[in-house]
Design a protein that fits this description.
Blueprint (H helix, E strand, L loop, with lengths): L7 H8 L11 H22 L2 E8 L5 H9 L7 E4 L15 H4 L7 E6 L8 H5 L4 H20 L3 E8 L2 H13 L9 H8 L1 H15 L6 E5 L3 H14 L38
Parallel strand pairs: 1-3, 1-4, 2-3, 4-5
């Protein structure tokens, strides 16, 4: 009998430990193996013309940015596009709600990662009063049908919700307040999300309950341990996509041209960046 061909689930299981902990000394090695698999995924997406959307939602300070960074830092931004839309403009406020998100959906050979998405309507917009409760309810009732249409068209849709405890969120917020390198991460909306913990809890619970479906289920990522969340989320993501490694045809560099006999070195002044240290 021939050797069994590994599928995506087999490879991702080898690439990353399902329940890695932040204290694990093997974190860097786990992450490296996963990023090799992400490179294989990228090659497959380009060759197959697949269209993939990955939605990241969750509590403020739950670590969405950290997962997205590790997912994209070793691949091409032309294939992996991260979309983090600002607040809608006055013109966009007059459009159909989903219109500005539809414009960012992938073409063949692309993966679009939404760092927050159309689910803003069910979360921050609803809690902060940027939409009416009736508008939020209509959204929650309609979005499963819209997502079903996307999936039926051949698009792969994955939805992740990063969850964090009250205590850990407070620790991370205080860390941001005290650390100049993290202060940019702290917005007025973050402060409001801290104060309105239970309003957000109610909104997110209903969002997940009403929009979890067979064609587009929610996957909750416990994120008190950031490094474990990264390993677990990326491992799971890879297991949900039926990619296969694409053979890389190594190019030959050939011979470099010889220096022309009549070449004259340019001796004009140039500004050189000084060495530090």
């Amino acid at each position: 009998m021939g050797k069994k061909k590994k599928d995506g689930k087999d490879r991702q299981a080898e690439a990353g430990h399902e329940h890695a902990r932040a204290s694990s000394p093997g974190y860097a090695e786990h992450l490296h193996r996963l990023q090799v698999e992400i490179a294989h995924l990228q090659a497959w997406v380009k060759e197959s013309g697949a269209r993939i959307v990955i939605i990241f939602e969750g509590r403020d300070a739950a670590g969405k940015g950290g997962v997205i960074k590790r997912l994209t830092e070793r691949v091409s931004p032309r294939v992996f596009r991260v979309t983090a839309l600002p607040a809608p403009s006055d013109r966009e406020k007059t459009q159909i709600y989903l219109q500005r998100y539809i414009a960012h959906l992938p073409a063949a050979g692309e993966i679009v990662i939404f760092d927050r998405s159309w689910y803003n309507r069910a979360g921050v917009e609803r809690v902060m009063g940027f939409c009416t409760d009736a508008q939020a309810r209509r959204f929650l009732e309609a979005i499963p049908r819209y997502e079903a249409t996307l999936v039926e068209s051949g698009l792969i849709l994955l939805k992740y919700f990063l969850d964090v405890s009250e205590e850990e969120q407070e620790r991370r917020f205080r860390q941001r307040i005290d650390d100049p390198l993290r202060q940019w991460k702290l917005s007025p909306m973050d402060i409001e999300s801290y104060r309105r913990w239970w309003d957000y809890t109610t909104a997110y619970d209903e969002m997940i309950r009403m929009t979890d479906s067979i064609h587009a289920p929610w996957w909750v990522v416990p994120s008190d341990d950031k490094k474990a969340a990264r390993i677990n989320c990326i491992s799971h993501l890879l297991s949900r996509i039926p990619y296969e490694p694409v053979k890389f045809e190594k190019p030959k560099l050939g011979d470099r041209q010889k220096r022309p006999k009549d070449f004259v070195e340019d001796t004009s002044f140039r500004n050189i960046v000084p060495h530090v240290g």
